[in-house]
UniProtKB/TrEMBL annotation:
Binding site for substrate: S19, D22, R49
PANTHER family: PHOSPHORIBOSYLAMINOIMIDAZOLE CARBOXYLASE, PHOSPHORIBOSYLAMINOIMIDAZOLE CARBOXYLASE CATALYTIC SUBUNIT
Entries under InterPro entries matching the protein: PurE_ClassI, PurE_dom, PurE_prokaryotes
Species of provenance: Qipengyuania marisflavi
Gene Ontology terms, MF aspect: 5-(carboxyamino)imidazole ribonucleotide mutase activity; lyase activity
Similarity section: Belongs to the AIR carboxylase family. Class I subfamily.
Record function comment: Catalyzes the conversion of N5-carboxyaminoimidazole ribonucleotide (N5-CAIR) to 4-carboxy-5-aminoimidazole ribonucleotide (CAIR).
Name of this chain's protein: N5-carboxyaminoimidazole ribonucleotide mutase
Family annotation (Pfam families): AIRC
Top enzyme class: isomerase
Gene name linked to the record: purE
Length: 168
């Protein structure tokens, strides 16, 4: 009798964003997770344009097997906070750099959550997205020694790549 096929591992990290226009920023989170061998599920979920989709996603996220949610949005960036209101999973919020206010609006919309509904808020823009990916991996690594080693190796390589002195 044939061995039963091993089911593919479902992604434990969801990366959601308010718009297609957020993808150039949010792909940094997906890229660093990919470098660390962590699969992610990437979706467009808007608090304002697709509120029903947001509610459905947030309420189902834990049951769907996700362990961490990275949510990025710009402007009136309610997406991370609204998702955090509907799930007990850790939510990492990335303020996308808006055209009008350079992401200051996004940052303030995400960071100042009321006590009891946390969003781990990252820096504005690509650095924030990269660090959200690294933090998501670090959260998963607390229960995954192989991933923990890959994360430590990744960081060591980054340190080793820093020159002692600047080029003249
Ligand atoms: C937010 O509005 C999105 O997260 C995006 O950052 C911003 C602008 O969206 P688009 O008008 O480019 O679709 O909902």
């Amino acid at each position: 009798m044939a061995e039963p096929a091993t089911p593919p591992t479902a992604p434990k990290v969801a990366i959601v964003m308010g718009s297609q226009s957020d993808w150039p920023t949010m792909q940094r989170a997906a890229q660093v997770l990919d470098e660390l061998g962590v699969a992610s599920d990437v979706r467009i979920v808007s608090a304002h344009r697709t509120p029903d989709r947001m509610v459905d996603f947030a309420k189902a996220a834990a049951g769907d097997g996700f362990h961490v949610i990275i949510a990025g949005a710009g402007g009136a960036a309610h997406l991370p906070g609204m998702i955090a209101a509907m799930t007990h999973l850790p939510v990492l919020g990335v303020p996308v750099q808006s055209k009008a206010l350079s992401g200051q609006d996004s940052l303030l919309s995400i960071v100042q959550m009321p006590a009891g509904v946390p969003v781990g808020t990252l820096a504005i823009g690509e650095a924030g997205a990269t660090n959200a990916g690294l933090l998501a991996a670090a959260i998963l690594a607390t229960n995954d020694s192989d991933l923990s080693q890959r994360l430590q190796d990744w960081r060591s390589a980054r340190s080793a790549a820093v020159a002692d002195r600047p080029d003249a």
